[in-house]
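User: Quick sanity check before I run a bigger batch. Here is a single chain. Can you write out its predicted 3D structure?
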Amino acid sequence: MKNLSKTYGEGDAKVNALTDATFSIKKGEFLLIVGSSGSGKTTLLNMIGLLDKPSAGKVFIDGTETTKLNDNEISLFRNSKLGFVFQFSNLMPDLTVLENVTLPRSIQRTEQNSVDDAMKLLRAVGLETQIHKRANKISGGQAQRAAIARALVNRPSIVLADEPTGNLDSVTTETIIQLMKSMAKKLNLTFIVVTHDREQFGEVDRVITVKDGRVTETENNSMKVVA
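Assistant: Done. Predicted structure follows.
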């Protein structure tokens, strides 16, 4: 991210959601973005994930300046490079767990070996006995594990998670956090997680804090402004 800013509205209604953020994330890092409600953390995640365009600045992913891509190129890039996990699993309720996990492959039209790859991931997240159940027949924790498998099925470079435990009880939250950490380590994936509850996640590689649209970084128990 280079000099990344996002402004909504105009004139008296103008809101600076993010101001001049510059920082890098290394491959394989498990990084948290924290901040209070309305601080700009989800805005930042959405720009990293190419779900929203910055008002100024640049986003580079794996050497590609994504802010130069057109809408069609953004869709293709996002589907191949990025995986998403949200607060609610967003599974298709009438599809089975297996069908939900293979769905990104169907959208990308890369269905070769998709069932085998999905099965491997579902075994890795402990859902091998749930694969033929419809998504509306499994628990919230199971649905979130299925969502993590779905996020990984296209073998992305980066997984972006927006409050992935916000709708779960404390025991299930711990399970999901440990699952994300183990998958990140096992697959050497970069995980970027937005959360309002830093303490839930225990030890992580790095923490980015967003406050009033400004980004600071926690490093060695000290704070520095990232600019």
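Residues 220-227 have pLDDT under 50 and may be disordered.

User: Great, the batch can go ahead then.
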